[in-house]
Amino acid sequence: MSPILSVRDLEKTYEGGFQALKSVSLDISQGEVFALLGPNGAGKTTLISTICGLVQPTGGSIQVGGHDAIREYRAARQLIGLVPQEMPTAPFEIVGDTVAMSRGLFGLKRDPALIERILKDLTLWDKKDNPIMALSGGMKRRLLVAKALAHEPKILFLDEPTAGVDVELRHDMWRIVGELKEKGVTIILTTHYIEEAEQMAERVGVINKGEIILVEEKQELMRKLGRKLLKLSLSEPLDAIPEELKGYELVLEDDGTSLTYTYDTHAERTGITSLLTDLASAGVRFQDLQTDQSSLEDIFVGLVRENRDQA
Fold first, then answer.
1. 297 to each of 10, 71, 126, 293, how far by Cα in Å?
2. Boundaries of each ABC transporter domain copy (predicted)?
């Protein structure tokens, strides 16, 4: 099946010569939840803004639901909902009216039942007659989502959807994303909260300095790049790692009171059995051990650091 969103060799260079996007290519499937990760200034918002038609690309192509996003802008944009980081709406507008108006901007007929359902789903129904300026920060973020959903888009972009909001709203956003996915809506989110990507996404893309450095299924990424740590609490501190243990690339920590061994759980041999045998032969005793799995955040930080070092 053809992807609902296809980006090919997309580039964006601003006046002054700064290249924000460098030959970005990406395919997103219908109904997928895709997380785009990257440090500040990596190009996440520029990529989203370009796909949504808010920023003009300087090269490449964008296909949205089979429509060329440049030549068939209106048809492509009709399929897209965007939840930006900032609140662009006038503060004196009424909550219910501004959501209904968002639907009208796409030339769609009024649908009071749909608007009511969206506002109720986002806990905004009792605020429908209030001016936007009377809303709290969290409620304004909910309103941005409601406006983006008013024209029933097939693709929803969430640009840092829970930045600066409370835990309750963050969990509500996770719930809403799950419900939209069940309805076949494609979700693309950028986030600084790695736990969001780990919680919601099926695939993860990492962008750095305007380039996509990796796109991978989340579980496969964690399988291939995730590592486990074995930490041994020593009975007596060591001044240095014994020579006969150097081959294990152990790390001596906590003022010599612990040893950390990194291993691949999917390798044919983890090396743990031979390590424990060689520890005993070297006279190194331990009183406790524990294991810890690499998180998606650990993997992300490592990828960005590796990309930076290679630049």
1. 27, 39, 38, 11
2. 5-234
Residue pair 32/217 in contact by the 8 Å Cβ criterion: no
CATH of the domain at 59: 3.40.50.300
Task: Give the pTM.
Answer: 0.74
Q: Could you count the other beta carbons within 10 Å of the beta carbon of residue 253?
A: 11
Identify the pLDDT of residue 190: 86
Q: Do 275 and 232 share a structural domain?
A: yes
> What pLDDT is stored for residue 299 in this prediction?
65
Same domain, 159 and 260: no
Question: What burial letters (b/e) apply to 8-29, b meaning 16+ CB within 10 Å?
Answer: eebbbeeeeeeebbbebebebe
Sign of the CA dihedral 37, 88, 31, 125? positive
Q: Residue 302: in which H helix or E strand, if any?
A: helix 296-310
DSSP string, 177-246: HHHHHHTT-EEEEE-S-HHHHHHH-SEEEEEETTEEEEEEEHHHHHHHH--EEEEEEESS--SS--GGGG
Full domain range(s) for residue 88: 5-223
Is there a domain that residue 131 lies in?
A: yes
Residue 255's CB is within 10 A of a number of other CB atoms, namely 8
Quick one: pLDDT at residue 206? 85
Domain tally, the chain = 2
Q: CA-to-CA distance for 157 and 154, rounded, in angstroms?
A: 10
Walking along the chain (311 residues) 10 residues at a time, the average pLDDT comes out as: 92 94 95 88 90 94 95 94 80 93 92 95 93 89 92 92 71 83 91 74 88 84 68 90 87 88 69 86 88 64 65 58
